[in-house]
Amino acid sequence: MDFALGLDIGGTKIEGAIISDKGKIFDKYRTETHAEKSRLAIVNNITTVIKKLINTEIIGIGLGVPGFVDKHGKILFMPNISKLINFNIKTYLEKKFKLPIKIDNDANCFTLAEHLYGAGRGYDNMIGLILGTGIGAGIIINGKIYAGKTGSAGEFGHCIIDPTADEIHRNYKGDFESFCSGPNIVARYKEAGGKNQDVTVEHILKLKSSDSVAKQIRKETIKYLAIGVGNIINSLNPDIIVFGGGVSNANFYRDLKHELKRYTIPEPLKHVKILKNKLGGDSGVIGAASLVFC
């Protein structure tokens, strides 16, 4: 059995784990990212996680990052950890640890993990759709991650679903993310007059609620989800769409499937499965480690 170290690097935390080539977790360690600090401080936090786990014999290290990297490992775009932009983290870590380093977007890592070991196992054409602080996605075509020319394939969160929105709502651009990311669902609730200042996405998307504003926003959100997901189905005709991120924990799947009938070509809709992820918060580290095995 082979082992790899998977790192899930986010704007607030860095999580590492030793993963077997069967997708099993054997050890874990987590620390804060401190994205507001210097590049050196952030890189030191990354290397600290690696050093805590590297006692196990591994064949390589995989990194999932919240941005885009070029084929050489240089970070091109990473708004949540902007100090690392233009830094070649792959070269740095290879020199430091003398091990192969693989790196990819965190949405691709989520999708790869669910494809190999989770809800998407056994399906050749899959979308991993993350509904969290933002909206991102990974695309698998014929069993392989599709990254596109510059590595930015799957940015469905920036697809426009209501071009008039910016004329009505000053803070929304009219894209998928503006309506269906977690923070924006909450923002729309408050903008509509919702009184619960501590409201959560789960409360808003609750199937049966006595909160009339939450009911209204739930209905609108499911409509916008159906438009966004319907566009994905119409464009890519996947076997399965696996949802991840905090919003995926809410109870909306049955109503989404019904609403999709309004926005989706019947034949591909009939054949696509829409499921919640199986790996939960472990998908990031499992997917990152799987980059080493693939």
- Helical percent range? 25-40%
Mind telling me which CATH architecture of the largest domain this is?
2-Layer Sandwich
The strands making up the biggest β-sheet line up spatially as 3-2-1-4-7
Q: State the end-to-end CA separation.
A: 15 Å
- Rg: 19 Å
- CATH homology superfamily of the largest domain: ATPase, nucleotide binding domain
CATH top level assignment of the largest domain: Alpha Beta
Low-confidence stretches: none
CATH topology description of the largest domain: Nucleotidyltransferase, domain 5
As a percent range, the share of strand residues is 15-25%
The profile of the biggest β sheet is: 5 strands, mixed
Coarse structural class: alpha/beta
Number of domains: 2
Tell me the total number of β-strands.
Answer: 12
Mean of all residue-level pLDDT scores: 94
Give the SSE string: EEEHEEEHEHEEEHHHHHEHHEH
What general outline do the C-alpha atoms trace?
globular
Determine the number of helices (DSSP H or I, runs of at least 4 residues). 11
Walk me through this protein's architecture.
The protein is α/β, with parallel strands linked by helices and 294 residues long. It has two domains: 121 residues, Nucleotidyltransferase, domain 5 (2-Layer Sandwich); 155 residues, Nucleotidyltransferase, domain 5. 37% of the residues lie in helices and 21% in strands. The strands form three sheets. Strands 3-2-1-4-7 form a five-stranded mixed β-sheet. Helix 3 crosses helix 11 and helix 8 crosses helix 9. It is globular and about 55 Å long. The mean pLDDT is 94.
